[in-house]
Design brief:
By secondary structure, the chain is an alpha/beta fold. It folds into 2 domains: 129 residues, Rossmann fold, CATH 3.40.50.1860; 112 residues, Rossmann fold (3-Layer(aba) Sandwich), CATH 3.40.50. It has 11 helices and 8 strands. It has a 4-stranded parallel sheet, sandwiched between helices. Helix 8 packs parallel to helix 9. The radius of gyration is 19 Å and the shape is globular. The termini are far apart.
């Protein structure tokens, strides 16, 4: 796990991933909270999670305590995020995100103050996912701390405020993140997320899909979907969809050949 930290902070220091010239695409800029906890594969803080280049910038003022709360970041912390965004854009980032779903409360301000598109939170996809569900089904949310996730966070991304929510507070994952511990039992963290999913569906059987607020839960999305047997959406999948719009694939001759062959 120590290697992951070295890799992540190496990318912060050097600005972007070193890629072959033929594959040098504009990176996704990730504004990171100031933490030291482990970043397993699938976590937004692990550059190997992504099939495209990323660059990181740590916001020194943005501790977990200052972001994961009901009130949202202070003006000083917001200014630090904007300054960090400008730094990443200067390093070549063509799009921006953050490492914490609680930044949903600041989505509108961040997007308005940044020079390139900004997707601040996994919660940005809640309304989209809701629109795909059958009548009588709704989105449920699993969060790092259900006591701190408020209606204001959902209002910040234009999502419904009456969604069923379940947290993992008191478990391994929440303890490691909120106390910023240097080691993580991945198996216990996965069990925390699955247990939260079971509690969520037990109290709200009309949940037809789950959105993971926490960017650190993405490594466990597959296991959760398998256990719950409903769709599970995380920040990594959202970013992949969003990035496709920012940089659509080039089909080249294949598209032209198809048009020709079909008259």
């Amino acid at each position: 796990m120590h290697f992951i930290f070295v890799a992540c902070f190496a990318y912060v220091e050097h600005g972007r991933r070193a890629l072959p010239a033929a594959d040098m695409r504009s990176p996704l800029g990730i504004l990171m909270l100031n933490t030291r906890f482990p970043r397993p594969p699938g976590d937004i803080g692990n550059p190997e999670t992504f099939p495209y280049p990323v660059c990181y910038h740590v916001i020194e003022l943005a501790t977990v305590e200052r972001i994961v709360n009901a009130d949202g970041p202070t003006a000083a912390v917001m200014d630090a995020f904007v300054d960090g965004a400008h730094t990443l854009v200067e390093q070549g980032a063509s799009s921006l995100t953050t490492s914490c779903g609680f930044m949903a409360i600041a989505q509108k301000e961040l997007a308005g103050r940044c020079r390139v598109p900004m997707l601040a939170s996994s919660l940005c996809q809640v309304s989209l996912v809701q629109s795909t569900l059958p009548v009588g089904k709704r989105v449920g949310v699993i969060t790092i701390d259900s006591r701190e996730l408020t209606a204001a966070h959902f209002v910040g991304v234009g999502a419904p405020t009456d969604l069923p929510i379940e947290g993992v507070e008191g478990g391994e994952l929440a303890d490691v993140i909120q106390r910023d511990l240097p080691s993580l039992d991945v198996a216990k963290a996965e069990a925390d997320v699955i247990a939260a999913g079971k509690r969520l569906l037990a109290k709200s059987p009309d949940v037809g899909a789950i959105v993971l607020e926490c960017t650190n839960m993405a490594p466990y999305a597959r296991s959760l979907a398998k256990a719950m047997r409903i769709p599970v959406y995380d920040i990594i999948g959202l970013l992949s969809w969003w990035r496709r719009g920012l940089e659509p694939p080039a089909f080249g001759g294949r598209a032209q050949a198809a048009v020709t062959s079909h008259g």
